[in-house]
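User: I've been trying to design a sequence by hand for this structure and keep getting stuck. Would you show me what you'd pick, starting by listing the structure so we're on the same page?

Assistant: Good idea, let's start from the same input. This is the structure you sent:
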């Protein structure tokens, strides 16, 4: 049996190729999509307006790609873009290698299903909040769910060590202090907590288990159905 590739880490040893192929599959695909979209928009090859979550054009022109493309645009190349990309890659890969088991045994299929549910929740929020891009909110949702699954894990923000449970709130507080908007972060927390509630709390308190990874995703990622 071939040895599994080590999970890539931002700042880890090895060359760029080793780091890239060390990323788990969904994180790697999202990284390519976000970076590619940023390049196309930064170099003027496509307009960011063609990627927005525009419900008017979605319904009248049937531009269904907008349901996905609004999640893979973090803005053109800039320092905030780099920070957002770092946060996404760092915590997406950490969660993807050991997500909540929602039927696929804690594999990438379970992570894919979480992203689908998160995207659906955020799309509804984006409709009422009139938000054209929701990628930052989805990124923060991933970070939030990871922090709830690993609340006692130690992590750091700009060199300050803390338990993972406090990380989302520390990042929100930091953004408040430096004057950055926090609305996308709040949306991510709300979507993440809804997911956490439906998977972790609802089965015990309400006797229902509404989140089950579909079989086609399990087969797509080469897994097998497993009890939660």
């Amino acid at each position: 049996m071939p040895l599994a590739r080590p999970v890539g880490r931002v700042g880890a040893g090895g060359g760029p190729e080793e780091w890239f192929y060390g990323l788990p599959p969904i994180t790697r695909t999202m990284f390519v999509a976000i970076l590619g979209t940023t390049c196309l928009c930064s170099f003027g090859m496509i307009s960011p307006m063609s990627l927005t979550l525009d419900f008017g054009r979605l319904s009248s022109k049937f531009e269904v790609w907008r349901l996905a493309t609004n999640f893979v645009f973090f803005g053109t190349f800039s320092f905030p873009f780099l920070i957002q990309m770092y946060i996404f890659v760092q915590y997406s890969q950490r969660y993807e290698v050991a997500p909540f088991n929602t039927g696929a045994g804690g594999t990438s299929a379970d992570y894919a299903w979480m992203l689908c549910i998160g995207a659906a929740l955020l799309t509804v929020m984006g409709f009422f909040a009139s938000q054209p891009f929701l990628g930052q909110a989805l990124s923060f949702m991933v970070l939030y769910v990871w922090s709830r699954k690993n609340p006692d894990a130690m992590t750091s923000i700009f060199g300050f060590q803390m338990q993972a449970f406090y990380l989302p709130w520390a990042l929100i507080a930091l953004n408040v202090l430096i004057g950055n908007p926090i609305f996308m972060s709040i949306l991510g927390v709300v979507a993440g907590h809804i997911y956490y509630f439906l998977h972790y709390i609802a089965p015990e308190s309400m006797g229902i288990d509404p989140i089950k990874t579909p079989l086609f995703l399990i087969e797509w990622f080469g897994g097998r159905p497993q009890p939660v």
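That's my pick for every position. To get oriented when you compare it with your attempt: The chain is about 55% helix and 5% strand. The radius of gyration is 18 Å.
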